[in-house]
TrEMBL record:
Catalytic activity: 5-(methylsulfanyl)-alpha-D-ribose 1-phosphate = 5-(methylsulfanyl)-D-ribulose 1-phosphate
Pathway annotation: Amino-acid biosynthesis; L-methionine biosynthesis via salvage pathway; L-methionine from S-methyl-5-thio-alpha-D-ribose 1-phosphate: step 1/6
Site residues, Transition state stabilizer: 162
Lineage of the organism: Bacteria, Pseudomonadati, Pseudomonadota, Alphaproteobacteria, Acetobacterales
Known EC number: 5.3.1.23
Name of the molecule in the record: Methylthioribose-1-phosphate isomerase
GO molecular function: S-methyl-5-thioribose-1-phosphate isomerase activity
SUPFAM superfamilies registered for this protein in UniProt: NagB/RpiA/CoA transferase-like (SSF100950)
Family as reported in the entry's similarity comment: Belongs to the EIF-2B alpha/beta/delta subunits family. MtnA subfamily.
Amino acid sequence: MKIDGIPYRSVWVEPSDGWSIRIFDQTKLPWSLDILRLTEVGQVAQAIRSMQVRGAPLIGAVAAYGVALALRKDASTERLEQVVAELGETRPTAINLRWALARMRAALHNLPAGDRVAAAYAEAAAICDDDAETCRRIGEHGLPLIESAAKDRERVNVLTHCNAGWIATVDWGTALAPIYMAHDAGLPVHVWVDETRPRNQGAALTAWELGKHGVPHTIIADNAGGHLMQHGQVDLVIVGTDRVTRNGDVANKIGTYLKALAAHDNGVPFWVALPHSTLDMSVGDGVAEIPIEERSGTEVTDLTGRTADGRIETIRVAAEGSAAANPAFDVTPARLVTGLITERGRCAASEAGLRALYPEKG
């Protein structure tokens, strides 16, 4: 995708040295476009924990490069096992992280130590290329949903929650890929962008990248979606996901479940876009089995923004002395999901639907 006409991916190897890694610092968006240089695995782990890099597919790709950075200093089998375990603990909910690390381990474990560094960079690059192509295909399979909704309408209103665009993947995005393709095809698509409290990934990131691409959009408060649906102002909902179980339950940013309930009550199609790396066929009951990350309460009590004179400041908005809980994700049961958009096509949010597209998953 492009920023001000310049093409980017969300992670890349620094061309000048051929080994360090570059990412955008997503905690600085939309106020400034800061590019970080990562030179050691500790920096990668911190970037993932602090959400300088975020988005289920992207943290997997960046973690893969983290393995490569670690092996530059010590390519032993012991270090390989150690770094895979360390990086796997940085975020608990998104399964893409463990998928990418398992793929790196499988590719490197049986190689001689002297061959591992080059192979690690090659495998991490392959993971990135796979994600970019996967997301492009998700866009192709989701585009017909918007095309169908556009018939006899002056504007197609799509609601999305959190950020599942190219800044959350290596390129294109998941939920936003069909929207970008619809816009580029000349369809009159407009996006309702949930602010997505408490970190405001919608207002800060989704709105930023849609704006950079020229896609018409409007930021709304998280609780406005149901109202818009009641008044016929939402044609379909498309969200991303951090983990999908074998029966089609969907873990996504906190608040997604409430959007699905509102969509179900108002007859609005609720679609979930996901790559193969987000599938977790080992889990049956998403509500009972998916671990939900609990983040710092300060994300709820404090807000960061730009003041009128241009300074970036963090302020407290909650009453002093009040405790704050901050579950980062919730699980939407499959019964509320209209269908899944994957790189292999669309399917029902069910075990039968998923196994029809992914028979090799067992």
